[in-house]
Amino acid sequence: MVRNSTKFSFKIAALVAVFVAVCFASEPNLPEVDAPWMKGEKLTFSLGWGFITAGSATLEVRPTLDGKTEFLTYATGNKTINKIYPVNDTVYTRVRNKGLMTEVFRKRLHEGTFHNTSVIRFDRKGEKAWLSDTVFTDMKTRKVKRSADTAVTIQGAEHSIMSAFYLVRTLPLKVGETSRFSAVSGKKRYELKVIVHGRETVKSVLGEVPCIKVEPVLDGDGIFVSKGRIFIWLTDDERRIPVLMECEIALGSIKAKLLEAK
User: Fold this and answer.
1) From CA 42, how far away is CA 235, in angstroms rounded?
2) Residues 22-47: pLDDT tens digits?
């Protein structure tokens, strides 16, 4: 059970992937995103199952000198968990500020004996997303177990999993509404939707804060290993800070709780 909960906990990038709500008609018409966190942000979370704190994750926003934005995600197990099942995951995304359109998405997963590196490069004009995916048997020697290159046809406004997460934080999120969009993850293009359930007050490191509760739903299968429902609570203000994320599993739930916001 520790292994299952830990493995899912550290797929934080995948967990947040589907929290997005809109797909614009075409890239040239996309608006410039000017959210408060675009100037820089660092959010730190604890990751746990039940009473067990399995590790931590960090979501960071960095503006670049050339007018673009980088999203960085780090996840690792605590000392006890890493002795049993070592985890060290990183996700890097570079986006254009207009519509948060991804240029490149890079993911590196080190979970137990599983080592994977994948890169997706978006060619909007060519209507292709180019994926390079490699699984290693040994990271020290860089011995390759399998490797594949794939091209996915896109329509111009698809997101990566991280740009999708940040875009949803810019939206009105009206209670009772369901919105849809498209994203590329793995070797496929997926149709995703987010349901806005309602408003709740959540006790967090920021105090008792009014939040909006949303639920992502994947039309198809492929991004999530778990079949449980996933929920996220965003602060009901212009920052839309995710104070709590929760995924239901067979025995309880996996939770990511906000520890610090800078």
Assistant:
1) 16
2) 333 344 467 889 899 999 999 999 99
In angstroms, the CA 191 to CA 158 distance is 10
* DSSP-assigned beta bridge partners for residue 94: 70, 104
Helix (H/G/I), strand (E/B), else coil: 195: strand
Distance CA 174, CA 178 (A): 9
Residue given tokens 């399998």 in the structure block: 146
* pTM confidence score: 0.83
Calpha distance 41→74 (Å, rounded): 14
Tokens of 201: 């007050």
Cα distances (Å, whole numbers) of residue 73 to 13, 45, 124, 143, 207: 7, 11, 24, 25, 24
Q: Find, among 94, 100, 54, the residue nearest to 72 by Cα.
A: 94
> Which tokens in the block code for residue 153?
């046809």
Residue 29 CB neighbour total at 10 angstroms: 10
- pLDDT tens per residue, range 120-141: 999 998 999 999 999 998 888 8
CA distance 74 to 11: 10
Helix (H) or strand (E) holding 209: strand 207-219
Sign of the Cα pseudo-torsion (138, 3, 10, 53, in order): negative
